[in-house]
Recover the amino acids of this structure.
């Protein structure tokens, strides 16, 4: 009797584990499709659009990606979303800070996301990005290339000093540093190239 109960418990546990990983796998496929759809749609639209049109398409949870972030060294390619008064984008995607300037204008494109182990921990491996690593933003038919030149920790206070400029183009990536509790890791890069995609 105890052996049968043990087998039933084992089967139930294995079923839950399978369902967890299967769901995670399906969500990953869906996210990759959304990223690829954004890139495809903005490529097509960029070639046929007037200068006033801004493509922002996605079907996932009614989230409209404004751009795609790619960091090859940590195998990350995800959509980014504007944070608004009525939409806490960090709960669903990589979030664009309200004072950000998009890559097509001088200024600083500031992005933040969760780290850790949850399904929304898009920056869980951000601490592995190093000086001279490349970061890419896909935005309105242009792929912008940045090179990381600074990496440091700050105390987790909800505030960070960032570069404010109207002369050059930067990217700043911020998340909690899971290996340095109470701190956030900040990476800063400078735009070095852009090309059509």
């Amino acid at each position: 009797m105890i052996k049968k109960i043990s087998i039933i418990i084992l089967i139930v546990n294995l079923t839950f584990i399978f369902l967890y990983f299967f769901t995670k796998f399906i969500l990953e496929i869906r996210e990759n499709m959304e990223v690829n759809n954004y890139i495809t749609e903005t490529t097509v639209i960029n070639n046929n659009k007037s200068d006033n049109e801004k493509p922002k398409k996605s079907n996932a949870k009614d989230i409209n990606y404004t751009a795609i972030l790619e960091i090859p060294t940590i195998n990350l390619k995800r959509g980014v979303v504007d944070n608004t008064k009525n939409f806490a984008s960090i709960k669903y995607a990589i979030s664009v800070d309200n004072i950000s300037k998009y890559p097509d204008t001088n200024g600083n494109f500031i992005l933040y996301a969760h780290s850790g182990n949850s399904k929304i921990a898009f920056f869980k491996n951000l601490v592995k990005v190093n000086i001279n690593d490349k970061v890419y933003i896909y935005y309105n038919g242009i792929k912008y290339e940045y090179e990381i030149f600074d990496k440091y920790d700050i105390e987790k206070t909800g505030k960070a000093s960032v570069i404010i400029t109207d002369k050059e183009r930067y990217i700043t990536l911020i998340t909690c540093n899971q290996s340095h509790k109470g701190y956030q890791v900040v990476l800063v890069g400078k735009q070095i190239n852009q090309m059509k995609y």
Summary: Confidence is low (pLDDT under 50) at residues 44-60. Residues 2-48 form the longest helix (47 residues). The first strand starts at residue 67 and ends at 71. The radius of gyration is 19 Å.
